[in-house]
Design a protein that fits this description.
Blueprint lengths: L4 H9 L3 H9 L6 H13 L4 H24 L4 H9 L1 H6 L1 H13 L3 H24 L4 H7 L2 H22 L7
Amino acid sequence: MQLTKEDFKDIYKTLGNNDLLNMFLSRSQYTSIAIEAMTEEINSRGLNQEDLEGFLQDKVIEKDEFFQRVNFKELIFIEKLTYYYLSVIVLGFMFFFSWLASETSRQGYKLKIKQAQLYVTSSLIFLILADWIFPEYELYIWAAGFVIPLYFNFKSTKKRQQEFDRIYGKATINK
């Protein structure tokens, strides 16, 4: 059964402006009858080129914010400390940590997961090495070991800042 122009009009009337404009942007995927009905619905709502440009600008901003969140939103200092010093506790709650990481990943915070893995892994390595080499100073070495992943994190943050500046100009990462 092939849909008529009236069928398309009825469908398009139920859509919001953003959905309708989004479909209009990919109109090459639709039949001529569907495009005709879509164009008539856009005109009947009084939507114009300015509305389309505003919609496009919002989509660009949305994608830009997602890109920044995925690649430039890093752990705050207290989160870094927590992942490092409480990694032993985190290991005890491995299932919970796995769930938390998947939730964080689902929200698009890839960088935070990588940093969490850096601090948890570093903490465990320093705890094991300190216990093996200097058992009498184990906690001191383990606590002081936080400086090493923090240093590497600062170096990678500098590289990310340079990449951010290259992509976005001289803006700062404060989101």
